[in-house]
Amino acid sequence: MPEALTIRPATRADIPNLVDWNAAMAQETEARTLDRTVLARGVEGVFDAPRRGFYLVAERDGAAVGSLLVTYEWSDWRCGDFWWIQSVYVVPQARRGGVFRALYAAVRDQARAAGAVGLRLYVETENQRAQRTYAELGMEPCHYFMYEEGLPRT
């Protein structure tokens, strides 16, 4: 029987895994190849400016098996922060083993303790398995579509 999961804050020592896992997630979910130099700077940017958010890492038997990023969105309507769950990745051999559920429970507990007004995430419209998981955890689809415009980097 596998050892219980441990959820901990990520450290700079986790950056190589976080970069690898973000690149793998982009490839698996969107068939996108990310620029690893930009990605590494983006991951490091979370550690450089904690106001941007934080990563959590799940470990089983002493090995890192998954992670997620939490970022913040201020809601003037609710006078509080939504915590956005992003960059979720679980290594293939640990999938369907409760890793995301444990990460989510840790985020929920931390968000409640911090006074956040809610949790949000986005999911690919075709990813029915993930949508079922989120619903089982108590999340509901919201009535917003997401729009985006990429801006040139200077």
TrEMBL record:
Is Transferase tagged as a keyword? yes
* Protein name, entry field: GNAT family N-acetyltransferase
Q: Which UniProt keywords apply?
A: Acyltransferase, Transferase
Source organism: Frateuria flava
Q: Which residues form the N-acetyltransferase domain?
A: 5-154
Gene3D superfamilies for this protein: 3.40.630.30
**Which Pfam families does this one have?**
Acetyltransf_1 (PF00583)
